[in-house]
Amino acid sequence: MNPRALIVTADDFGYSTDVNAAVVRAHREGILRFASLMVLRPAAAEAAGLAKDNPGLGVGLHLELCAEAPEKAGLRYFFDAKARAGVEGEIRAQFDAFMALGLRPTHADGHINIHIHPVVFPALCRVAREYGVARLRLPSGELSACLEYPGDFDPILPRLALAGTFAAMRFWIRDAAGGLQVPRSWGLLRSGRMTESYVLWLLQRLPEGVTEFYFHPCSDPSSEVSGDRPNSSHQSVTELRTLLSPRVREAIAVMGVDLLQAHP
Asked: I want to staple 135 with a disulfide (CB 3.0 to 4.6 A). Which of 31, 107, 121, 170 is the partner?
């Protein structure tokens, strides 16, 4: 195995027909090899059918415990005993819904990365082991590359705060993942804006070991929910273009990075 390996994942599979179409196109024509499925969304059954038609696409659970406002959800899990008591049952219910679609999960992660919450992550680890899921997402290690990226003019402090918050949560939950694969995952600090140039920048700075890049592709550039700029769900046609980019594919090949497959 090459010292550097890459997992490429699309989030929000099942969110809508436009997202489903983007995922399938990015898999068939681009570098996408995994997708994370939202079982509570109306296009989930369509997504499952598309996954069966594309057996090379590895599909995992995109756990949804809040549609928005992760800060409020996070506080609820800290201070609401009923919410804490119910989180493991909700995770198990979404895994059951996933299995009922006729799929076997290759991995699990969370919408808005809610799965990293210190109350949620240990529960997710326990349930993942029950369902034979060996890999979970753990955002980490992107900050220096993001801050050095010459095409990024966003304020620094919000990114430092976001990276610091996730670093603190990783420290808190690190022991819960014993025996599970938790490769570093990049995409948090420019979520919805994983442009071709930024991904090429990240590839040049890819460390040894396994790294995940995750995206939110959508297929309709004319709609409000999928323009060049990401919406509140972080979906954008820009990220579909990145997944289809010949330059990105060539860089992966020239650098000798192993693009990991769902079913080698």
From this structure: 107
What is the rounded distance in angstroms from the CA atom of residue 7 to the CA atom of residue 165? 24
* Nearest Cα residue to 115 out of 76, 70, 78: 70
Topology annotation, domain 4-259: TIM Barrel (3.20.20)
Query: What pLDDT is stored for residue 72 in this prediction?
Result: 59
Residue ranges of domains in the chain: 4-259
Q: What b-and-e string marks burial along 146-174, b requiring 16 or more CB atoms within 10 Å of the CB?
A: beebeebeeeeeebeebbeebeebbeebe
Neighbours of 21 (CB within 10 A): 18
Burial class (CB in 10 A: 0-12, 13-18, 19+), 119: middle
pLDDT for res 11? 97
Could you tell me which residues come within 8 angstroms of residue 139 by beta carbon, excluding any fewer than 6 positions away?
Answer: 113, 116, 166, 184, 185, 186, 187, 188
Instruction: Tell me which residue of 105, 10, 14 sits closest to 59, measured CA to CA.
Output: 105
CA dist., res. 14 & res. 191, Å (int): 18
Question: Mean pLDDT, consecutive 10-residue segments, the chain of 264 residues?
Answer: 90 96 98 97 97 97 77 59 78 97 96 87 94 94 91 79 82 85 93 94 96 93 55 84 98 96 78
